[in-house]
Every structure is written in structure tokens, then in C-alpha cells.
Amino acid sequence: MNTVFWIGIYLITFVVMEFMAWFSHKYIMHGFLWSLHKDHHKKDHGSWFERNDFFFTFYAAISILLMVLWGEYGFWAGFPMAAGIFTYGVAYFLVHDIFIHQRFKIFRNTNNRYAKGLRRAHKMHHKNIHKEGGECFGMLWVPRKYFR
């Protein structure tokens, strides 16, 4: 029975991370930490790395903290929550950095309806190079209007 709870918490955490990604992007990245995120919209440097890349450390730290709480203090939900955050982070990296932004040149020929819609929606978001006015969405939730 414990395994069923762990799987449930893992899945719920993964889904909640979609909301957290949207919320963080809309209100933090396009809010008070725009100074770190703006180079993702308008590259003003020659480096492969972006200041925006530092955002992953926040969720990594939360995941690590949950693992410590599980391992050292017996917080039984810590492990599935940490695994859900970690798995979402890997999925986000694969979809956002590799598939959409092509930071590594793989998945270039993916050509299904969802993939095209996701790329189209992200392209529309990046047309806005300013702090305000950009539509924000998640990795799993993309407005229907982008799927033609």
C-alpha cells in the first residue's frame, strides 16, 4: 500500500510542477527576477550558458531538501516528491532546452501535431522581448489556438 501512495504523490507532484513552472515563469521570471530571465528572450552575450539557466537550481535545492528530509528525518513523502520534481525538471529540460530551443541538435525532425503546436506557442511567447506582455503557458498545457 505504501507503494501506491508513493506513486500517487510522485504523479501529483509532477502535475503540480506544471503549475509551478507556469507560475514561476509568469510572476517570477517575468516579474522581480526578469534580470536573470531576459537573456533567454534577447541574447545579449556570446556564451552558450544564459543567466536564465540559474533558475533550475531553486527546484534542484527543493528536491535535495526533500531527499534529506526523507533520508535523515523519516519524512516518508519526501522521496516521491523529490522524484516528481526531478522528473519534471528532466522532462522540462528535454522539451524546452533540447526540443524547442535546440541547445543540443537532436529531436529536430519531430513533426507531430503536439510538437508543432508547442514550438509555435513558444515562438509566439519569445516574440515579446520585454518583461510585460508575453503569454505564459506550461509544458503540458498549451492553448488550443496553437494547434492548427
Report on this model:
The protein is an all-alpha fold. The protein has one domain (2-37, 51-146). 64% of the residues lie in helices and 0% in strands. Helix 1 packs across helix 2 (34-41) and helix 1 crosses helix 4.
Any chance you could write out the topology, listing elements then pairs?
Blueprint: H1 2-32, H2 34-41, H3 56-73, H4 78-100, H5 113-127
Short structural summary:
The protein has one domain. It is 64% helix and 0% strand.
The number of domains is 1
Secondary structure category: mainly alpha
Number of β-strand runs: 0
Mean pLDDT metric: 81
Radius of gyration, whole Å: 17 Å
- Element order: H for helix, E for strand: HHHHH
* Percentage of residues assigned to helices: 55-70%
Strand content: under 5%
First-last Cα distance: 44 Å
Largest sheet: none
Low-confidence blocks of residues: none
Put simply, the count of helices is 5
Using the alpha-carbon principal axes, give the shape: globular
